[in-house]
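[SOLVED] Need 3D model of a two-part complex

Original post:
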Amino acid sequence: MKKLTVSILQFPGTNCEYDTVYAFERLGHTTHVVWHKEETLPEDTDMVVIPGGFSYGDYLRSGSIARFSPATKAVEKFAANGGVVLGICNGFQILTEMGLLPGALKRNNNLHFISKHQTIKVINSDNRFLNQFENGEILDIPVAHADGNYYIDDEGLAKLKENNQILLRYCDSDGEPIVLNGSVEQIAGIRNIEGNIFGLMPHPERAMEHILGSIDGEKMLKGFENA
Amino acid sequence: MKAVVNVYLKEGVLDPQGKASHHALDSLGFEGVKDVRIGKQIILEIDALDRELAYGQVKEMAETLLANTVIEDYDIEIAE
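Solution:
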């Protein structure tokens, strides 16, 4: 197993950074919390996580303002050099706003903030994130979002499929697709074409212990040890 | 100079807030409402020499930050 140094971004309004610290340290990794005003990432950074929360109060659009922070610019460079980046929930929204992942996340179609345990299906496990799973496996990971309704146009969707970029879809406990928030084809998580940038709405850092109801998140994050 | 940017979801992108408001109008008995779209209006006070320059500046602002052109369209009105 490879020990990683994980840099976790923190914006005003981020609220999952310490859960994310806990999750990665539990797996034996080292973490840094990086304040958004930092212009560089710690030098030993192996991986960046943009965690969940409500950066800048979700003003204007979720993730739209965080995109212009100095630390976010540093992440752009890190990613351009092939660095591994994971965006969870608000982090996923920020990655789409940055243009590092295609599509956009808009208001849930039922207009509710959806906060519950949710089953999701692994669509593609052949990557640096979900390599601990088999395709078709059903996981139980909490979701907590108001803007998780993934949108991409038909052309973009065709590209996602062509390049095996769809990682996770919402499903019921039998693996059948369900409409959770209105996402195009129930998409819950994707990656970029190059395979170093990952985004998902569910929160793996909240599924790390049996006492929390699921350890599927632990298995998810373990994937990066083999990256 | 005052500039007004209207941002709304693109045609073909489902607007859940518009849809919910449409249902509410229907159930309140307002007839003949064919569609409801909800957007946002951003009002800017800017320094610019003339309307054309102002328009150019605001367009860049809209493309960069104010609208997410993956899902949203915008229009710009320059007043005064």
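Edit: The mean pLDDT of chain A is 96.
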